[in-house]
Design a protein that fits this description.
- With 370 residues, the protein is mainly alpha-helical.
- 76% of the residues lie in helices and 0% in strands.
- The chain has helices spanning 3-56, 62-74, 76-89, 93-104, 107-117, 120-129, 136-145, 151-163, 170-176, 178-182, 186-198, 200-207, 214-223, 233-239, 245-258, 263-270, 276-289, 295-301, 307-319, 322-332, 338-353, 359-369.
- Helix 17 (276-289) runs parallel beside helix 19 and helix 20 crosses helix 21.
- It is extended.
- It starts with a helix and ends with a helix.
């Protein structure tokens, strides 16, 4: 076979593969669009049936009941997602009616079964759907799911228990969810934020454990920002001097949200912390709280080796008002080089970002006009 024939056959092969791939993509898109239309139509049918029942208190139409039973058998995942969405949109008697009609078609029993034996995806959706049923059997099944082999299922089960006001002790959650805590899962963070809103004392109690991991301390410190109570102040002050930099930074962030006078010395100490994350967080906190006596320290931080620390310090000075802006203008007017020039460039950047002219530019402009 000649070299030219070989090239021809390779080109033909590649063209054939390209056509097959394009054909597959077209068929897949058509299938996805068809499935989407079907799901939209099915959601509308189920939604209409459920709304009719919630408005009329009883389901007289045998046809509606058969339709729901059919969806429960064929499209259980779709029905569960819709039921969860509706549950969050309604209150009071409507929620009770929704729970009642779903119980009539075996929805709760099916969720309990899938929570025990389903695939990870089905177990997660079943755990979320059980928030519709506030009964002892559902709560016990969710507590048992905290030992599930799938980490995400454990988090969903804990979140549902929180919604049902049946969340177990925080130390137990920290133990059961350690994997997702170490991975800094967004879901588990939202879970502990919710616990902080409902029961900040639970976080305070958990924070007293001397054997907590650094990830658990950081999570507790972050979550305490959502507690509208000063009872989290003592553990946060303890976390602010922890050996782990992430814990210290999270503690300063949460202390800032409390707006308590005791926070000031912690922030001033944080401005000189060995970790750049802590220094940056302390600089941001000084601006948010309005610590005007930190102007000199913040001006010094604009020469920091880390860009984020310099930026946070300059932003904090701007937030301090006239005295901070004056300090920024003085630094921005410096035309030298080296570390001090680095701070001058950051000051000029922040002033320009907020539409403020540098003092030296104004003086030069006035001199030229004169």
């Amino acid at each position: 076979m000649s070299e030219l024939m070989l090239i021809w056959w390779i080109t033909l092969f590649l063209a054939t593969v390209s056509l097959l791939v394009m054909g597959f993509l077209v068929i897949r898109r058509s299938w996805d669009e068809r499935s989407e239309r079907y799901n939209q139509d099915a959601r509308k049918v189920v939604q209409d049936i459920l709304f009719r029942f919630m408005l009329t208190e009883n389901l007289d139409h045998e046809r509606d009941l058969r339709n729901l039973l059919g969806f429960q058998r064929r499209e259980k995942l779709l029905l569960r997602k819709l039921a969860i969405d509706l549950f969050h949109l309604i209150q009071g008697q409507e929620r009770e009616r929704l729970s009642h009609i779903l119980s009539q078609i075996g929805f709760r029993e099916d969720c309990l079964h899938d929570l025990r034996t389903g695939t990870p995806r089905r177990r997660r959706l079943a755990a979320a759907a059980l928030q519709i049923f506030d009964d002892e059997e559902s709560r016990q099944a969710l507590l048992h799911a905290l030992d599930d082999g799938d980490a995400d299922t454990r988090v969903v089960a804990a979140t549902t228990l929180l919604i049902l006001n049946a969340v177990p002790a925080t130390p137990l959650l920290l133990d059961k969810l350690h994997e997702t805590i170490e991975n800094q899962s967004h879901q588990v963070r939202n879970l502990f934020h919710g616990i902080a809103r409902q029961a900040p004392s639970a976080l305070v109690q958990a924070a007293s454990d001397p054997n907590l991991s650094a990830a658990s301390k950081a999570l507790l410190a972050e979550s305490m920002a959502f507690a509208s109570s000063f009872e989290v102040l003592d553990p946060l002050l303890s976390f602010a001097v922890d050996a782990d930099a992430e814990v210290r930074a999270s503690a300063i962030r949460s202390l800032t949200s409390l707006q308590h006078p005791v926070v000031e010395p912690v922030i001033k100490k944080g401005l000189n912390d060995p970790s750049w994350q802590v220094r940056a967080m302390a600089a941001r906190a000084a601006g948010r709280i309005g610590l005007r006596d930190c102007v000199s320290a913040l001006s010094y931080q604009m020469d920091d080796a880390n860009w984020w620390v310099r930026f946070r310090a300059a932003e904090a000075l701007y937030r301090l008002g006239d005295v901070g802006i004056e300090a920024l203008q003085m630094r921005a007017g410096y035309t030298g080089c080296g570390d001090f020039g680095r701070g001058a460039r950051m000051a000029a950047l922040v002033l320009d970002e907020h539409g403020i002219r540098v003092a030296s530019e104004l003086i030069a402009e006035n001199t030229s006009h004169a």
